[in-house]
Amino acid sequence: MRIAISGSACQGKTTFINDFVKTWPKYTRSAESYRNLIKEENIGINKKVSADGQYKILNCLIDDLQKTAKGDKILFDRCPLDNIVYSLWSLDKQSSDIDKKFIDKCIPLVKESMKHLDIIFYIPITRAAPIEISPKETREIDKQYIEEIDNIFKAITYQMVKLGRSPFFPEEDFPPIIEIFGSPEERIEMVKLYLDEKGDLIHNEESILDPKNLEDMQQLLEAQEKIKQDDDVVTRLKKKFLLDK
């Protein structure tokens, strides 16, 4: 199982990954070579992104995915979807040289890379389990910025939940994007709805991913929807990227 952990800053992704590995010790962490690339080439991130930097990071993330095989048990802290989310923020704010032409160039690469993932666990901002924003090297701590990034993730999740498709995912052989929220303990318990004790995908009648349980899964997703924010950023992005191509 090749699993990516995605989401905005300061949402407890590192804590979740640590807890995940303790619960399923057969999983290893990705080497995260993109972080080394950022340091080595002094690439701007967060609010300081550029088209050149984002493209280098995107290709590095894709290279890491392509080195894996279907049977590997590996966790990725972020994936190409995260990369394009940050690029979309810059496009929306017109804060860099990232333009629609650049996004159009990146979308096919992101879409194809999704075939190398089995699940994306997305950690959203929720009122149910707020996370304290704390300073850290390379981490953005602007609350408004963090929420705007999260809103873009929610717009993409909305596409997959409500429409079952998105311009950022292939029509076939794509990973489900699953929201994991709550306390650290609750997050791990949510994952257990999808993975067995060995860390393999549950395929029996108890699995929430089983087609027989799609109605229950939809009810769960609709419950999550109630605690989401739906501000102007989400609305604009829905209009821009709801498969009108």
Task: Indicate the topology.
Blueprint: E1 2-6, H1 13-23, E2 28-29, H2 33-40, H3 51-66, E3 74-77, H4 80-93, H5 100-113, E4 119-122, H6 143-163, E5 177-179, H7 184-191, H8 214-225, H9 232-241
Parallel strand pairs: 1-3, 1-4, 2-3, 4-5
Helix pairs in contact: 1-7, 2-3, 3-4, 3-5, 4-5, 4-6, 6-9
Descriptors:
245 residues; Rossmann fold; alpha/beta; 9 helices
Explain what this protein looks like in three dimensions.
The chain is α/β, with parallel strands linked by helices. The chain has a single domain, classed as P-loop containing nucleotide triphosphate hydrolases (Rossmann fold, 3-Layer(aba) Sandwich), CATH 3.40.50. It contains 9 helices and 5 strands, in the order βαβααβααβαβααα. Helix 6 links the parallel strand 4 (119-122) and strand 5. The longest helix is centred in the middle third of the chain and has 21 residues, at 143-163. The model is unreliable at 205-214 and 226-231 (pLDDT under 50).
Short synopsis of the structure:
This protein is 47% helix and 7% strand. The chain is an alpha/beta fold. The protein is globular and about 45 Å long.
Q: What average pLDDT do the residues reach?
A: 83
Broad CATH class: Alpha Beta
CATH topology: Rossmann fold
Number of structurally distinct domains: 1
Q: What is the end-to-end distance? A: 32 Å
Q: Give the oligomeric state.
A: single chain
CATH architecture: 3-Layer(aba) Sandwich
Low-pLDDT residue spans: 205-214, 226-231
Using the alpha-carbon principal axes, give the shape: globular
Kindly report the spatial arrangement of strands forming the biggest sheet: 2-3-1-4-5
Number of strands: 5
Helix content: 40-55%
* Fourth CATH level, the homologous superfamily: P-loop containing nucleotide triphosphate hydrolases
How many whole angstroms does the radius of gyration measure? 17 Å
Structural class: alpha/beta
The biggest sheet, with number of strands, parallel, antiparallel or mixed sense and barrel status, is: 5 strands, parallel
Percentage of residues in strands: 5-15%
Order of helices and strands: EHEHHEHHEHEHHH
Count of separate DSSP helical elements: 9
